[in-house]
Amino acid sequence: MTAGIDRRSASGADTGRDGIRRISTTSVADRVAGELLRLISTDQLSPGDKLPSEPDLARQLGVGRSTVREAKQMLISRGFLESRGKVGTFVADQESRRVPLEMLDVLLTMRRVEELHQARNILEVGAIRLACELATEAELAALDAHLDRLSQVDGDEEFWSGTVAFHSEIVRACHNTAIIYMFNSLSDAMRTDQLPIHARANVRADGVERHRRLLRALRTRDPNAAAAEMADHLAQSHHHDLSVLGTDRTD
């Protein structure tokens, strides 16, 4: 079988007749590799099947050809795909795999988490510095009220979405349109990629207190102190995510 894609909308995502989900144009190569792995693991792509050409995959998944090429090379190097030169790229036999399918999926997830952490550090540490200078008293009061509401939330998904919204409010308080725009794009990935990880083994009361520390640091109007608190906050969150993923690998 050779997978083809006929995009249609389903639950907010474009999905083809063969079950292939369209990748966002902001996705990186590991997410494309993850989609190909999903097709292999669900037998929608079987050993010996030929992949569509790079231009076709790029169009169908909504990414660039270089991203498709990088994803393919990642899977070729681990024995999931086989390049036959000008003939094309094919799904390899299971005996050729140098990394178990389940393990590679975890490694790809860890890479996404690491990249997301790096991006958040770049944006949020700088944003809280600016917010120390530019946030209004009304914005600080709104952040306080947000945490009061968050302490009453009963449900992991609602709680995590609420914490993302809290960080968004801090970023908006920096009053820099470019930073706000970039963080809005990043927050979508935070909700989809981090929620399944972050909600586990996480005590909501502790989460509220960690965010109150951020607000107290912001209220000092000391950019260095607030930046240090944000960096520590993000480091703790990242450590939690990696610990959960590490547990998954040993289960």
From TrEMBL:
Residues 26-94 form the HTH gntR-type domain. SUPFAM superfamilies: GntR ligand-binding domain-like, Winged helix' DNA-binding domain. Signal peptide: none annotated. Transmembrane segments: none annotated. InterPro entries: GntR_C, TF_FadR/GntR_C, Tscrpt_reg_HTH_GntR, WH-like_DNA-bd_sf, WH_DNA-bd_sf. Keywords: DNA-binding, Transcription, Transcription regulation. It comes from the Bacteria. Gene3D superfamilies: GntR ligand-binding domain-like, Winged helix-like DNA-binding domain superfamily/Winged helix DNA-binding domain. It holds the Pfam family GntR. PANTHER family: TRANSCRIPTIONAL REGULATOR, GNTR FAMILY, UXU OPERON TRANSCRIPTIONAL REGULATOR. This is FadR/GntR family transcriptional regulator. It comes from Nonomuraea antimicrobica.
